[in-house]
Design a protein that fits this description.
This protein is α+β, with helices and mostly antiparallel strands. The chain has helices spanning about 45-50, 55-60, 135-155; strands at about 5-15, 15-25, 30-40, 85-95, 100-110, 115-120, 120-125, 160-165, 175, 180-185, 195.
Length: about 200
């Protein structure tokens, strides 16, 4: 008995995922709604998928930075261009032609405080109200994919690794992430078994 899982909402907090999804059992014709708060650190691909929503957070909310974007560069958006915005989650709504999403995030102010932002509900096919609705639909689909990979296929970020062997004082230890990035760790001290913490992905980036 296999269920079809549909993401309803997703949130990233402290590098961990909180999600609500429905599981539908077609043969029995019933569904469950599951709220899940996960302990594993998110993968960098999930963080990057969320970051791609920054442009929609800005444009739908009509922030001053929205003037930078048009129907061409919205697809080529680099999240680093909006460093003072953070997307923390999104909520699906509607169905069929009325399907859409609300994006949740914040703007980091010069004062050091944060301005919370919830976009108005925006439909995926209503380009009269939001000209980049097509890009929004694609970017939310990418988020849903990564959330599914995390929830059901154990695609997590690396939190820590254990070294089960003696490490001399003069040896530098480097962790290689899934993407081939080399991350140097603190030098091990002594020759006893060590557990070395390594943040492979920055969940707040």
């Amino acid at each position: 008995m296999k269920a079809k899982n549909t993401i309803q909402k997703a949130k990233v907090k402290d590098g961990q995922l909180e999600a609500t999804y429905s599981e539908y059992f077609a043969e029995e014709n019933y569904s469950n709604t599951i709220d899940k708060k996960c302990a594993q650190i998110i993968h960098g691909d999930l963080r990057r998928a969320f970051d791609k929503l920054k442009v929609h957070l800005v444009c739908i909310s009509e922030m001053p930075e929205a003037d930078r974007f048009d129907s061409v560069n919205v697809y080529e958006f680099d999240p680093d261009d909006l460093p003072n915005y953070v997307v923390t989650g999104y909520v699906h709504g509607g169905s069929g032609e009325s399907a859409g999403v609300t994006i949740i995030g914040k703007k980091l102010l010069k004062s050091g405080q944060a301005l919370n932002i919830n976009t108005p509900f925006t439909q995926f096919i209503d380009e009269d109200k939001y000209p980049y609705a097509g890009a929004l639909a694609s970017d939310i689909e990418a988020c849903d994919y990564e959330v599914n990979e995390y929830l059901f296929h154990e695609k997590f970020g690396m939190k820590q690794m254990s070294l089960d062997f003696d490490v001399p004082d003069n040896v530098d230890v480097t962790v290689i992430t899934e993407e081939g990035e080399a991350i140097p760790l603190k030098k091990a001290k002594g020759r006893k078994k060590k557990s070395i913490a390594a943040e492979a992905f920055d969940p707040t980036a």
